[in-house]
Write a structure and sequence with these properties.
Length: 536
């Protein structure tokens, strides 16, 4: 697929970044917003760029931070590994196939229904009824049956051992528990009647595209949050959100795509506002479709790697807030601290690779080989100012190498559909982030979940990579898993099918009165339960 060409005068990366700010406009907040002094002392005013949407915990349309507030899972994923949540404890059979959970006593949903083993089984039955929707998780292919022999015992039986099992049970969705009373005839496939969980907060009001109100769950079984009310205001525009914070109309901006680097640098040393930055959460990347006749040549893919100035992107677009990415996953990701030689930025080496492979520069500045011109399309999400900025920069840079790149931005759903169906030459994507990475995102490489499958399909070592990933998922031998991860990641690195750009980080900008702001093991959970206001 070749995107339509756009004729533009090349701009500097810094200029590109500056011209791509969205225009501020519209009313800031609902009339009841007010300033900090007028607010209830137990209220935190949060902001998001869109509405909470459908919070059915077994589907994927809703905002994950909101689902984390309302619902809980059998296990939690903490900084030191797995820890009990709705399950007090668990046992794994010697063959790794059977997981038996002891369900915590006395926990109720916010509608008063008991959260016992029977309720847990009802949730799993609802999820399994819609099994095909969840096959991006390998465990759904291996899960044979679930059982609740009594109110305190829940059991999962797998067809074979599966080492990421507890991780997938602990992520935000789809294995969060909703009250069976809120299901539609015992199902969640076609929606739910209400958003009823066991978590530290409950949703009490939504005004679509304006705000949502979450109140603390007074019957919460765990440590009760100090923040008793969270009001989430919808402000789509970046600059308008920052203005609202400056005016004291909100207390917290949080999220990897909610803040630009300029704002963080402006307030980094401010006494009025606090700034927090997480360790790398995921990798911003470009996926190269190996089925494209130009990109089928590994020399072309490696040349593009060397022609990508990651340091310039990190500095020019993100002011260093997102560090340059040398590999598909950051070394801080489990199993990914392996010895891979980065593709250093070197335009001379990139040109030499293309020359040696027979791609000759034409009089019009475009390389060609055997009648095939080096023309590629780069697809990006039109809702992402950052992707557009980077795309225009790379269009200019790759053009100097003799690669004509045409750009096309599409709205998010169309962009994702094209990615899934392999209808792209080059496309922006991200890794999934911990705790999904590396196992879940690599498992999805073996099927049409996102663009990975199509991109890799023509690789000569695709079968070997897939076989290694499949064995990774079932092996219970730690040493063997490390060997397999090293094999798969090394091959993907040598195949140069992904161009890593920067490592994304989670960001927060907040009132200096707000304490306990930080991050968890997943980039999608806002830890409201740990926050409090100084002096309140």
């Amino acid at each position: 697929m070749h995107a339509s060409r756009r004729n533009r005068k090349p701009l500097s990366l810094r200029a590109l970044f500056l011209v791509c700010f969205m225009a501020a406009g519209g009313a800031l907040l609902p009339a009841w917003g007010g300033n900090a002094a007028a607010q209830d002392a137990d209220t935190l005013r949060f902001v998001n760029y869109r509405d909470v949407r459908d919070l059915n915990p077994h589907l994927y349309a809703g905002e994950m931070y909101a689902q984390e507030m309302i619902y809980e899972t059998l296990v939690d994923i903490g900084p030191d590994g797995y820890r009990p949540c709705l399950a007090e404890s668990w046992e794994i059979s010697p063959d790794g196939r059977v997981y038996t959970f002891k369900i915590r006593k006395g926990v109720t949903f916010t509608d008063g229904a008991p959260c016992d083993a029977y309720a847990v089984k009802a949730n799993f039955d609802a999820i399994l009824e819609n099994r095909e929707r969840h096959t991006w998780l390998e465990m759904m292919r291996l899960l044979e049956r679930v059982e609740a022999p009594d109110a305190e015992t829940f059991r999962i039986v797998m067809s074979r051992a599966y080492y990421p099992m507890l991780t997938e049970l602990g992520v935000t969705r789809p294995f969060a528990m909703i009250s069976p009373r809120a299901m539609k005839n015992g199902s969640t496939r076609d929606g739910v009647n209400a958003y009823i969980g066991t978590g530290p907060y409950k949703l009490t009001k939504v005004v679509t595209d304006e705000y949502a109100v979450f109140e603390a769950n007074e019957n919460y079984w765990g440590e009760k949050p100090k923040i008793k009310r969270v009001v989430v205001k919808v402000i789509p525009d970046n600059q308008t959100r920052i203005l609202a914070l400056e005016k004291g109309e909100i207390d917290l901006i949080w999220g990897k795509n909610m803040l630009d680097a300029d704002a963080l640098n402006k307030y980094r040393d401010s006494g009025e506002f606090g700034v927090a930055l997480s360790s790398p959460t995921s990798t911003r990347q470009i996926v190269l479709n190996g089925q494209n006749p130009v990109l089928a040549d590994v020399s072309v893919r490696r040349a593009l790697q060397h022609a990508t100035n990651r340091e310039a992107i990190s500095r020019g677009v993100f002011h260093g807030v997102e560090p340059p990415a040398d590999t598909l996953y950051a070394r801080s990701v489990p199993y990914c601290d392996i010895d891979l030689k980065p593709y250093e930025y070197d335009m001379k080496k990139a040109a030499a690779l293309l020359d040696k492979a027979g791609w000759k520069m034409g009089e019009d500045g475009v390389r060609a080989k055997d009648g095939l011109r080096m023309e590629l399309g780069l697809l990006y999400n039109s809702n992402s100012v950052t992707e557009k900025t980077i795309a225009e920069y790379l269009q200019h840079e790759y053009g100097k190498l003799g690669v004509r790149v045409s750009l096309r931005g599409e709205e998010e759903q169309s962009y994702r559909d094209n990615m899934k169906n392999g209808l792209f030459d080059m496309i922006f994507n991200i890794c999934w982030g911990t705790p999904y990475d590396p196992q879940s995102s690599m498992a999805a490489m073996r099927q049409r979940v996102y663009g990975d499958y199509a991109a890799q399909l023509a690789l000569p070592d695709k079968k070997e990579i897939d076989a290694a990933i499949t064995e990774i998922l079932s092996s219970t031998d730690e040493k063997r898993r490390r060997e397999l991860f090293a094999f798969a990641l090394s091959h993907l690195h040598e195949d140069a099918i992904y161009i890593p750009l920067t490592y994304e980080t989670n960001k927060a900008l907040f009132s200096s009165r707000l304490k306990g702001v930080g991050f968890t093991q997943t980039q999608y959970e806002v830890p409201f339960s740990k926050m409090y206001f100084e002096g309140r």
